[in-house]
Specification:
Strand order of the largest sheet: 3-4-7-8
Oligomer: single chain
Radius of gyration: 24 Å
Length: 424
């Protein structure tokens, strides 16, 4: 028989040596107890309920993976990269290994639900990077300063700059994971990259991450894959239509809430609908960041479902179209759309829906999008040539297409309700 009295004096030892089965990489081990405790924290668990690709599942139905998945994957790639560099003779202490692992694990912790829509409507003036830094600071206080080194690596102030470049650069573990992961879940094979080979070719020269010349073709494929994924997935016209529809929904709901209208919303969403929170207030008043950590996709989606029957025509129609996947028609062109054509569409929307021309702007609008696959700057991709020299990828490569990838592509978009395409 068990001695219950004796058991009461045995400390509660939790097994933190966990293994996660990831569909992209297979089994991923949790490296340290601190990393495990961060994974268990509510701030990080929230990422389970935020989709990595927002509205993309409306085009690619499999794109339902979360920011939790992505963070775990990026952590796995970071462990592989650190092991590679140590095997090549670079000194990275156990403390630094844990810190850079934490930095990449938490790099997206500040994302809100449908980040791009949220950042342009409800939480304006503060980016998810800003929120990530705020949350890391709060976690550091909670964990008695154990994240101090991770934070300095994340923000680029740590003496070993190459560690920051593994977290944030044009060839970081974030990008290596999301290209492969997004390709896997969308089924868009053009995004598949040789992340294992790229990582095995990593080295450090003059405190910068470089790629050995043998890996140059894998890096070329990475850059081309990134460009293709932007046009086929991230900037797909139907994905754009869905994201702008959600932007308009959030903008209208905030406009109504600010005017005193009573709208259904969870407490967290209601806080940001009713209050205009400045960047300074968000940073300096803890109530805002704490409320933000209660937001996930379910707050937005539950509100949209209820708002579909709201008395306000504009909000209700936008929400019904969202739920029924009646997305905007989108024209993507090299030149700005014809102003008279836009004016005619505004008039048509105003007459068709019986609303003002101002409100018709929710159903007809223009904008621009940018695609920049590569930037030649101080965090460029460096190639270590066989003679020991270091060159930028665009000069080291004999692929003339890479020069084009370094140019920013600007496109004009015109969105309008498909109702307005009728001849009548």
């Amino acid at each position: 028989m068990l001695n219950l009295t004796l058991l009461q004096h045995v400390p509660n030892i939790l097994n933190k040596k966990k293994i996660i089965n990831d569909p992209v990489y297979g089994f991923i081990s949790i490296p340290t107890e601190l990393v495990f405790d961060l994974l268990e924290h509510p701030y990080f668990q929230r990422l389970r309920y935020i989709k990595q690709l927002g509205m993309t599942h409306l085009v690619y139905p499999g794109a339902l993976h979360t920011r939790f998945h992505h963070a775990i994957g990026a952590m796995h790639l970071m462990r592989t990269a650190i092991e590679t560099l140590i095997n090549k003779g670079h000194q990275i202490t156990p403390e630094e290994q844990e810190a850079v692992t934490i930095a990449i694990l938490l790099h997206d912790i500040g994302h809100g639900p449908f980040s791009h829509a949220l950042e342009s409507t409800i939480v304006e003036g503060i980016s998810h990077e800003d929120v990530s830094m705020l949350l890391m600071g709060k976690l550091n206080a909670e964990f008695n300063g154990k994240l101090t080194m991770a934070i300095s690596i994340f923000n680029g102030t740590y003496p070993k700059r190459f560690l920051h470049e593994l977290v944030s650069s044009q060839l970081d573990m974030d990008r290596l994971d999301y290209l492969n992961r997004d390709s896997f879940f969308t089924g868009v094979s053009e995004g598949v990259i040789s992340s294992d080979r790229i990582i095995k070719m990593l080295n450090v020269v003059d405190d910068h991450i470089v790629v050995e010349e043998k890996g140059i073709y894998s890096v070329e494929k990475f850059l081309i894959a990134r460009r293709l994924m932007y046009w086929q997935v991230y900037l797909h016209k139907t994905v754009i239509a869905a994201e702008y529809l959600l932007v308009k929904i959030l903008k209208r709901s905030r406009e109504l809430a600010s005017a005193g209208e009573s709208l259904f919303a969870t407490p967290a969403l209601s806080h940001f609908l009713k209050n205009t929170v400045s960047r300074d207030a968000f940073i300096n008043e803890s109530a805002h960041i704490e409320t933000f950590t209660k937001l996930d996709d379910t707050d937005i989606l539950s509100a949209v479902k209820v708002w579909a029957t709201d008395k306000d025509f504009v909000l209700a129609k936008l929400c019904r179209d969202f739920i029924q996947r009646k997305l905007f028609h989108v024209d993507i062109t090299n030149e700005a759309p014809d102003k008279q054509f836009i004016a005619d569409l505004i008039d048509k929307a105003s007459a068709k829906y019986g609303i003002t021309k101002k409100d018709a702007g929710y159903f007809v609008f223009e904008d621009t999008i940018l695609n920049n696959a590569y930037k030649v700057d101080d965090v460029n991709i460096r190639i270590l040539m066989k003679n020991g020299s270091v060159k930028d990828i665009t000069t080291a490569s004999d692929n003339s297409n890479l020069q084009a990838l370094a140019k920013t592509v600007k496109k004009h978009i015109l969105c309008y309700s498909k109702d307005l395409m009728d001849s009548n």
